[in-house]
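Fig. S4 source data, part A: sequence.
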Amino acid sequence: MSIRTVLVVGAGTMGHGIAQAAAVAGYDVRLFDVDAKAVAAGLAKIQGSLDKLVEKGKVAAAVRDAALARLAPATDLRAAAAGIDLAIEAAPERMDLKRRIFGDLGASAPATAILASNTSSLSVAEIAAASGRPDRVVGMHFFNPVPLKPLLEVVRTDVTSQATLDATLEVGRRMGKTCVVVKDMPGFATSRLGLALGLEAIRMVEEGVASPEDIDTALVLGYGHAMGPLKTTDLVGLDVRLGIAEYLDGKLPGGRFTPPALLRTMVAEGKLGQKSGRGFYDWSPPA
Protein backbone atom coordinates (compact mmCIF):
# COMPACT_ATOMS: atom_id res chain seq x y z
CA MET A 1 0.00 0.00 0.00
CA SER A 2 1.91 3.03 -1.29
CA ILE A 3 1.22 6.41 0.32
CA ARG A 4 2.02 9.49 -1.75
CA THR A 5 -0.74 12.05 -1.15
CA VAL A 6 -1.94 12.98 2.35
CA LEU A 7 -5.00 15.04 3.26
CA VAL A 8 -4.98 16.69 6.70
CA VAL A 9 -8.46 17.66 7.89
CA GLY A 10 -8.28 20.62 10.24
CA ALA A 11 -5.72 23.44 10.09
CA GLY A 12 -5.46 24.14 13.81
CA THR A 13 -2.49 23.50 16.10
CA MET A 14 -2.38 19.76 15.55
CA GLY A 15 -3.47 19.87 11.91
CA HIS A 16 -0.85 22.25 10.63
CA GLY A 17 1.78 20.44 12.69
CA ILE A 18 0.84 17.12 11.08
CA ALA A 19 0.81 18.75 7.65
CA GLN A 20 4.31 20.12 8.24
CA ALA A 21 5.68 16.75 9.37
CA ALA A 22 4.12 15.01 6.36
CA ALA A 23 5.44 17.57 3.87
CA VAL A 24 8.97 17.42 5.31
CA ALA A 25 8.77 13.62 5.04
CA GLY A 26 8.20 13.97 1.29
CA TYR A 27 4.44 13.52 0.98
CA ASP A 28 2.23 15.76 -1.14
CA VAL A 29 -0.07 17.36 1.43
CA ARG A 30 -3.48 19.01 1.18
CA LEU A 31 -4.37 21.07 4.26
CA PHE A 32 -8.16 21.39 4.63
CA ASP A 33 -10.34 23.54 6.84
CA VAL A 34 -13.85 24.86 6.37
CA ASP A 35 -12.47 28.34 7.10
CA ALA A 36 -10.15 29.68 4.39
CA LYS A 37 -8.58 32.04 6.95
CA ALA A 38 -7.72 29.07 9.17
CA VAL A 39 -6.01 27.35 6.24
CA ALA A 40 -4.02 30.47 5.43
CA ALA A 41 -3.05 30.86 9.08
CA GLY A 42 -2.00 27.22 9.26
CA LEU A 43 0.20 27.52 6.19
CA ALA A 44 1.74 30.71 7.58
CA LYS A 45 2.57 28.93 10.84
CA ILE A 46 4.20 26.09 8.92
CA GLN A 47 6.30 28.65 7.04
CA GLY A 48 7.31 30.30 10.31
CA SER A 49 8.10 27.01 11.99
CA LEU A 50 10.28 25.83 9.12
CA ASP A 51 12.05 29.19 8.94
CA LYS A 52 12.97 28.89 12.63
CA LEU A 53 14.24 25.35 12.12
CA VAL A 54 16.40 26.56 9.23
CA GLU A 55 17.76 29.40 11.38
CA LYS A 56 18.69 26.90 14.10
CA GLY A 57 20.40 24.64 11.57
CA LYS A 58 17.99 21.76 12.20
CA VAL A 59 16.49 21.78 8.69
CA ALA A 60 18.24 22.61 5.43
CA ALA A 61 16.81 25.51 3.43
CA ALA A 62 16.31 23.20 0.45
CA VAL A 63 14.26 20.81 2.61
CA ARG A 64 12.10 23.71 3.81
CA ASP A 65 11.52 24.97 0.29
CA ALA A 66 10.64 21.51 -1.01
CA ALA A 67 8.23 20.91 1.88
CA LEU A 68 6.45 24.22 1.32
CA ALA A 69 6.12 23.40 -2.38
CA ARG A 70 4.34 20.14 -1.48
CA LEU A 71 1.62 21.92 0.53
CA ALA A 72 -1.70 22.89 -1.00
CA PRO A 73 -4.69 24.64 0.66
CA ALA A 74 -8.21 23.20 0.49
CA THR A 75 -11.65 24.34 1.65
CA ASP A 76 -13.83 21.75 -0.13
CA LEU A 77 -13.49 18.43 1.69
CA ARG A 78 -14.96 16.21 -1.00
CA ALA A 79 -12.78 17.75 -3.70
CA ALA A 80 -9.72 17.59 -1.44
CA ALA A 81 -10.28 13.89 -0.78
CA ALA A 82 -10.17 12.95 -4.46
CA GLY A 83 -7.11 10.89 -5.34
CA ILE A 84 -5.60 10.78 -1.85
CA ASP A 85 -3.89 7.78 -0.26
CA LEU A 86 -4.25 8.82 3.39
CA ALA A 87 -6.49 11.25 5.27
CA ILE A 88 -5.59 12.33 8.80
CA GLU A 89 -8.43 14.02 10.67
CA ALA A 90 -7.36 16.60 13.29
CA ALA A 91 -10.71 18.14 14.22
CA PRO A 92 -11.85 19.02 17.78
CA GLU A 93 -12.59 16.12 20.15
CA ARG A 94 -16.29 15.78 19.37
CA MET A 95 -17.63 12.41 18.31
CA ASP A 96 -20.46 13.87 16.23
CA LEU A 97 -18.03 16.05 14.28
CA LYS A 98 -15.53 13.28 13.69
CA ARG A 99 -18.22 10.85 12.54
CA ARG A 100 -19.56 13.45 10.11
CA ILE A 101 -16.07 14.00 8.69
CA PHE A 102 -15.46 10.27 8.33
CA GLY A 103 -18.81 9.85 6.62
CA ASP A 104 -17.77 12.48 4.07
CA LEU A 105 -14.31 10.95 3.67
CA GLY A 106 -15.75 7.47 3.22
CA ALA A 107 -17.98 8.76 0.45
CA SER A 108 -15.37 10.84 -1.39
CA ALA A 109 -11.90 9.36 -0.83
CA PRO A 110 -10.70 6.50 -3.06
CA ALA A 111 -11.72 3.06 -1.83
CA THR A 112 -8.06 2.23 -1.29
CA ALA A 113 -7.36 5.24 0.95
CA ILE A 114 -6.58 4.89 4.64
CA LEU A 115 -8.57 7.14 6.98
CA ALA A 116 -6.92 8.07 10.28
CA SER A 117 -8.04 10.06 13.31
CA ASN A 118 -5.77 12.08 15.57
CA THR A 119 -8.20 11.61 18.47
CA SER A 120 -6.49 11.40 21.85
CA SER A 121 -9.22 9.46 23.65
CA LEU A 122 -12.40 8.81 21.63
CA SER A 123 -13.34 5.38 20.29
CA VAL A 124 -11.67 4.87 16.91
CA ALA A 125 -14.09 2.03 16.17
CA GLU A 126 -17.08 4.34 16.68
CA ILE A 127 -15.49 6.93 14.42
CA ALA A 128 -14.61 4.26 11.85
CA ALA A 129 -18.18 2.94 11.67
CA ALA A 130 -19.27 6.16 9.98
CA SER A 131 -16.79 5.68 7.12
CA GLY A 132 -18.23 2.53 5.57
CA ARG A 133 -14.69 1.06 5.45
CA PRO A 134 -13.73 0.35 9.09
CA ASP A 135 -10.97 -2.05 8.06
CA ARG A 136 -9.09 0.92 6.56
CA VAL A 137 -9.47 3.18 9.62
CA VAL A 138 -6.81 3.63 12.29
CA GLY A 139 -5.90 6.09 15.02
CA MET A 140 -2.81 8.27 14.54
CA HIS A 141 -2.39 10.16 17.82
CA PHE A 142 0.33 12.77 17.40
CA PHE A 143 1.73 15.01 20.13
CA ASN A 144 2.18 18.77 20.22
CA PRO A 145 4.32 20.24 18.75
CA VAL A 146 4.07 17.57 16.08
CA PRO A 147 7.29 18.39 14.16
CA LEU A 148 9.35 18.03 17.35
CA LYS A 149 7.65 15.33 19.42
CA PRO A 150 9.06 11.89 18.53
CA LEU A 151 6.07 9.73 19.55
CA LEU A 152 3.16 8.49 17.44
CA GLU A 153 0.50 6.38 19.15
CA VAL A 154 -1.10 4.14 16.52
CA VAL A 155 -4.50 2.82 17.58
CA ARG A 156 -5.77 -0.41 16.05
CA THR A 157 -9.41 -1.46 16.28
CA ASP A 158 -10.61 -5.07 16.18
CA VAL A 159 -11.25 -4.76 12.42
CA THR A 160 -8.29 -2.62 11.31
CA SER A 161 -6.53 -4.66 8.62
CA GLN A 162 -2.88 -5.62 8.92
CA ALA A 163 -2.17 -3.86 5.63
CA THR A 164 -3.68 -0.64 7.02
CA LEU A 165 -1.61 -0.93 10.19
CA ASP A 166 1.61 -1.68 8.31
CA ALA A 167 1.14 1.28 5.94
CA THR A 168 0.34 3.61 8.85
CA LEU A 169 3.47 2.55 10.74
CA GLU A 170 5.55 3.17 7.62
CA VAL A 171 4.13 6.70 7.36
CA GLY A 172 4.91 7.35 11.01
CA ARG A 173 8.48 6.12 10.68
CA ARG A 174 9.01 8.18 7.53
CA MET A 175 7.91 11.21 9.54
CA GLY A 176 10.67 10.37 12.00
CA LYS A 177 8.36 9.09 14.72
CA THR A 178 8.78 6.21 17.12
CA CYS A 179 5.49 4.32 16.86
CA VAL A 180 3.69 2.42 19.60
CA VAL A 181 0.67 0.26 18.76
CA VAL A 182 -2.20 0.15 21.24
CA LYS A 183 -5.65 -1.38 21.37
CA ASP A 184 -8.70 0.81 20.83
CA MET A 185 -9.63 1.33 24.48
CA PRO A 186 -10.83 4.55 26.18
CA GLY A 187 -7.87 6.89 26.55
CA PHE A 188 -5.55 4.45 24.75
CA ALA A 189 -2.20 4.38 26.61
CA THR A 190 -0.84 7.92 26.61
CA SER A 191 -3.99 9.89 27.42
CA ARG A 192 -4.98 7.42 30.10
CA LEU A 193 -1.60 7.54 31.83
CA GLY A 194 -1.07 11.26 31.37
CA LEU A 195 -4.56 12.14 32.57
CA ALA A 196 -4.30 9.88 35.63
CA LEU A 197 -1.13 11.70 36.68
CA GLY A 198 -2.59 15.12 35.88
CA LEU A 199 -5.81 14.55 37.83
CA GLU A 200 -3.89 13.31 40.87
CA ALA A 201 -1.65 16.39 40.72
CA ILE A 202 -4.76 18.60 40.63
CA ARG A 203 -6.16 16.77 43.69
CA MET A 204 -2.86 17.43 45.47
CA VAL A 205 -3.21 21.17 44.80
CA GLU A 206 -6.83 20.96 45.94
CA GLU A 207 -5.75 19.29 49.19
CA GLY A 208 -2.93 21.75 49.80
CA VAL A 209 -0.19 19.13 49.56
CA ALA A 210 2.14 21.49 47.70
CA SER A 211 2.15 24.35 45.21
CA PRO A 212 1.76 23.61 41.48
CA GLU A 213 5.40 24.64 40.94
CA ASP A 214 6.70 22.29 43.63
CA ILE A 215 4.57 19.36 42.45
CA ASP A 216 5.87 19.82 38.92
CA THR A 217 9.47 20.20 40.10
CA ALA A 218 9.14 16.96 42.08
CA LEU A 219 8.16 15.05 38.94
CA VAL A 220 10.75 16.71 36.72
CA LEU A 221 13.73 16.28 39.05
CA GLY A 222 12.62 13.22 40.98
CA TYR A 223 11.32 11.10 38.10
CA GLY A 224 12.93 12.60 35.04
CA HIS A 225 9.77 13.95 33.43
CA ALA A 226 10.43 16.58 30.78
CA MET A 227 7.54 18.67 32.14
CA GLY A 228 5.37 18.50 35.23
CA PRO A 229 1.72 17.35 35.04
CA LEU A 230 0.25 20.74 35.95
CA LYS A 231 2.22 22.73 33.40
CA THR A 232 1.28 20.03 30.87
CA THR A 233 -2.37 20.51 31.84
CA ASP A 234 -2.03 24.25 31.22
CA LEU A 235 -0.57 23.61 27.77
CA VAL A 236 -3.20 21.00 26.83
CA GLY A 237 -6.00 23.20 28.17
CA LEU A 238 -7.95 22.62 31.38
CA ASP A 239 -11.20 22.47 29.40
CA VAL A 240 -9.75 19.79 27.13
CA ARG A 241 -8.56 17.75 30.10
CA LEU A 242 -11.95 18.10 31.77
CA GLY A 243 -13.71 16.85 28.65
CA ILE A 244 -11.41 13.82 28.39
CA ALA A 245 -11.79 13.09 32.11
CA GLU A 246 -15.58 13.17 31.83
CA TYR A 247 -15.44 10.86 28.82
CA LEU A 248 -13.14 8.33 30.54
CA ASP A 249 -15.10 8.56 33.78
CA GLY A 250 -18.16 7.41 31.88
CA LYS A 251 -16.31 4.59 30.11
CA LEU A 252 -14.04 3.11 32.78
CA PRO A 253 -15.07 1.74 36.19
CA GLY A 254 -13.87 2.68 39.66
CA GLY A 255 -14.05 6.48 39.59
CA ARG A 256 -10.40 6.71 38.59
CA PHE A 257 -11.08 9.59 36.22
CA THR A 258 -13.72 11.52 38.16
CA PRO A 259 -12.75 15.18 37.61
CA PRO A 260 -11.60 17.01 40.77
CA ALA A 261 -13.83 19.87 41.91
CA LEU A 262 -10.90 22.28 41.47
CA LEU A 263 -10.66 21.42 37.77
CA ARG A 264 -14.36 22.11 37.24
CA THR A 265 -14.13 25.38 39.15
CA MET A 266 -11.13 26.64 37.20
CA VAL A 267 -12.77 25.83 33.86
CA ALA A 268 -15.97 27.60 34.96
CA GLU A 269 -13.87 30.64 35.87
CA GLY A 270 -12.22 30.66 32.45
CA LYS A 271 -8.83 29.61 33.79
CA LEU A 272 -8.05 27.29 30.89
CA GLY A 273 -4.25 27.44 30.90
CA GLN A 274 -1.91 29.02 28.39
CA LYS A 275 -4.62 29.86 25.85
CA SER A 276 -6.56 32.00 28.38
CA GLY A 277 -3.47 33.46 30.06
CA ARG A 278 -4.11 31.77 33.38
CA GLY A 279 -4.32 28.21 34.70
CA PHE A 280 -2.10 26.67 37.34
CA TYR A 281 0.50 29.13 36.04
CA ASP A 282 0.33 32.75 34.92
CA TRP A 283 0.78 32.85 31.14
CA SER A 284 0.02 36.54 30.65
CA PRO A 285 2.70 38.47 28.76
CA PRO A 286 5.11 40.50 30.91
CA ALA A 287 4.15 44.13 31.37
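Fig. S4 source data, part B ends here. The first helix runs from residue 13 to 24.
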